[in-house]
Amino acid sequence: MRSREMTLVSKTIKINLEHEKWLEFHPEINFSEWVRKKMDDSIERERSNIGKRKIKAIIVAAGHDKRLGSLNDNLPKCMLDVKGKTIIERQIENLRGCGIDDIIIVKGYKQEIINISNAKYYINPGF
Hints:
Pfam families: NTP_transf_3 (PF12804). The chain has two domains: about 5-50; about 55-125, no CATH class. The chain is about 45% helix and about 15% strand.
């Protein structure tokens, strides 16, 4: 089970234990409504935290591929054009479309050619 599922299971167990204790003193409590309210509140809290998480992406663009022959003699693979856009432009466009703006690019081969705005860079000298 994933950690989020485990958290919900443990919350459900805690709710059940709390309810059993409360029933001793308050038999008039409607258990199903009470549990539904508790779970709805918990789910809503989880949902409200989703947008607050900061997701980062790392694009490894340091290598040189000899299998491509002369296609990348003067360009890194990520700078190859595919229907009017480079591969790395497509990757970044997709990441930003998913709300991921903190992007790190690992550069190496022909590193001076890779220049994307609003991206951070790391240089791999041993590409």
